[in-house]
Amino acid sequence: MSIVTEAPIWFLLLCILAGLIYAGALYFRDRFNRTYGSFLASVLGTLRFCCITLLAFFLLKPLIKTINRDVEKPIIVVAQDNSQSLVVGADSSYYNNEYQQQLKGLINQFGEDYEIRSYNFGSEVREGIDSLKYNEKLTDFSKLLDEVYNKFSGRNLGAIIVASDGLYNKGSNPVYAYKKLNAPVFTIALGDTTVHKDVLLSNVAANRLAYLGNQFPMKIMVEGRKAQGETATLTVSKKGNNVFSKNISFTGERFSEEVNLTLQAGEVGLQKYTVTISSVSDEITYANNRKDIFIDVMDSRQKVLVLAYSPHPDLNAIRDAIVSNESYQVEVKLIDDFSGSISEYSLVVFHQLPAVGGNGMSAIQNALKANVPSLFVWGSQTDFRAFNDLKLGYSLEFYRNSNTDVGASFAEGFSLFTMEEDIKLMFKTLPPLQVPFGDVAFSPGVTNLIQQQVGQIETKNPLISFNKTGDNNKVGLIAGEGIWRWRLGAFQQFETHEYYNSFVTKLVQYMASKEDRSLFRVNGTNDFLENESVVFDAELYNASYEPITNREIKMTIRNEEDEIFEYNFSPNETRYKLNVGQLPVGNYSYTANAMTDIGTQTEKGEFSVSALQLELVNTIADHRLLYQFAKDNNGEMVYPQNMNSLVDMIRGKKEIVSISYESKQLKDLINYKWILVLLIALLSAEWLLRKRAGTY
């Protein structure tokens, strides 16, 4: 600890000089000290000298500098795979008992020289290894990487120990993903690399949606391991009745056969199909011999028309995203080639229409007259005089026949439909759209989904927004061309088109959906995985169509065994929410009731919970991946019986040591309370002595 000041050190002499002058002038003017006498004058002068010198010194703004040294031990992260694949077969009792004691013994051997942080992981990452159940339905090394990186990046991360069978079915390959941690990785090779006898359904693929009266395909992959000479029966059943059957003969040690079939969608609603391959003797597990598939059979699909003035890469980018949702049928036409009826469609996308010369105005007016929702995409070929005449709540004045690159930012407070957080953040990194340059005006009723961002400045100008015309018809606007770049940018960011497709289909779903003016609505998906929580939200309105949350909403859920479960929704701002939690695999129906001013309102629906069996498909441990994982990250792979050797390996690495951090802190000296006490004490002592001497 030391005292520092920004003023030169010789200023301290001026402070001392000020104290001497003040004390001398006050107590030593009379060289004979007739008033106080020599001794008392010296004492009083000393007190005054100290007080004035301190006060003058504080004018220099002195600071107290303290230096703190902290020692951070190297952090060792121990991560245990908690997925189902570890306990398939004969070793399950070992992992549930003896192995867990070995792992805890390994942690204890590190002693006080290291900070040990333990985790278990599967589809999620949780802290601690005291409650291992090996019941996770997925294995995701990426989630573990993110957890370790977020918590320990920038800290003294010494090493990571990952105990796993090397099998992963979600996220990226750990061999390449972990290099950014810049810490050695050691692996404990668990599981069995022996190929056991097993007959299984490695994959069953079918479209989630089908349409009444149509046929839909199903693809089934059957595998046999060490089942040569065996025969099993593949069956597909619905409500206990077989709709397909085939005998499979296994002719090799590693056998696989793809079975393609076509089924008829003859009943509306959520239909459950059970695919089964009969078991053979001495299989390692029978859990992978059955899969349940749920097909949502609908009456018809909605039709979307994309009309454009001329070919453009935006057209395919919009079309590909919409057709990823099987609820929609998409047609892409140039305006000069279109001769159909606009009223047949649930949504029309007008790309750069009306075009120069008012081209396309007839089709637009027909759509507005028929109350067909219309989504407009502005571009360099748009005729803005004709567009402004439509009076849709948007206008662009003084168009200068030029475009400007404009970025995107999600509009906070948007509530017409929900967007995932990853998609909201995605817009910040997407390439800009080419927006026509001019003066934008929009009516107060416009709701922005995406706002224009110029450089780092977020504006309120709409980039993607929605409005309603006087006839209560939905209209939307994408105020620039080049959305095909968004598709590429989203793929570059996430390595999948899923996020871009989800964004476009949500936009289309809102635009194409018919206006629902009912007082009570229940919203939620109709397909959940068994490791997901079943969640619903509900909306309740009064007679003035204002949202209310002061009424009780009850829901009863019925499973396939006719068991009934009752729940209550909880108010959540202007909506209600219900989290049922995880439910067993199967088909469910629900009935929700809410009391309103005009009586009881009822909503009914169906949903399914699908099984996750990815952990049971591959029962052969991948120790090659674990070896490569460790080698590429400056570590070693060991087997459970040798796991204690990891302590010596880590201690032997010279770079894994404690780190001493030095931090400096500056604080104003005048902020210390004892300084005030000292000054008061000096002045009080002086005053008391002067009073005792008969002066003031």
Question: What distinguishing features does this structure have?
Answer:
696 residues; six-stranded mixed beta sheet; 16 helices; extended
Write the layout of secondary structure elements.
Blueprint: E1 2-4, H1 11-27, H2 37-58, E2 63-72, E3 75-81, H3 92-96, H4 98-109, E4 115-121, E5 125-127, H5 141-152, E6 157-164, H6 174-177, E7 185-189, E8 198-206, E9 209-211, E10 215-225, E11 231-238, E12 241-249, E13 254-264, E14 269-277, E15 290-298, E16 302-308, H7 313-323, E17 328-334, E18 347-351, H8 361-369, E19 374-377, H9 384-389, E20 394-397, E21 403-410, H10 421-426, E22 433-436, E23 439-442, E24 447-454, E25 457-468, E26 474-478, H11 483-494, H12 498-512, E27 520-523, E28 527-529, E29 534-540, E30 553-558, E31 564-568, E32 570-572, E33 575-581, E34 586-596, E35 599-610, H13 614-617, H14 623-631, E36 637-638, H15 645-651, E37 659-668, H16 673-692
Parallel strand pairs: 3-4, 3-6, 6-7, 7-36, 9-15, 16-17, 16-18, 18-19, 19-26, 28-35
Antiparallel strand pairs: 1-2, 2-37, 4-5, 8-10, 10-13, 11-12, 11-14, 14-15, 20-23, 21-22, 21-24, 24-25, 25-26, 27-29, 29-33, 30-31, 30-34, 32-33, 34-35
Helix pairs in contact: 1-2, 2-16, 7-11, 7-12, 11-12
Instruction: Report the sheet with the most strands, covering strand number, pairing sense and barrel closure.
Output: 9 strands, mixed
Number of strands: 37
* Strand content bin: 35-45%
Low-confidence stretches: none
Annotation field: number of helices: 16
**What's the quaternary structure here?**
single chain
- Provide mean pLDDT, rounded: 87
> Which structural class is indicated by helix and strand composition?
alpha/beta
**Rounded radius of gyration (Å):** 37 Å
Distance separating the two termini: 40 Å
Strand order of the largest sheet: 17-16-18-19-26-25-24-21-22
Share of helix, binned? 10-25%
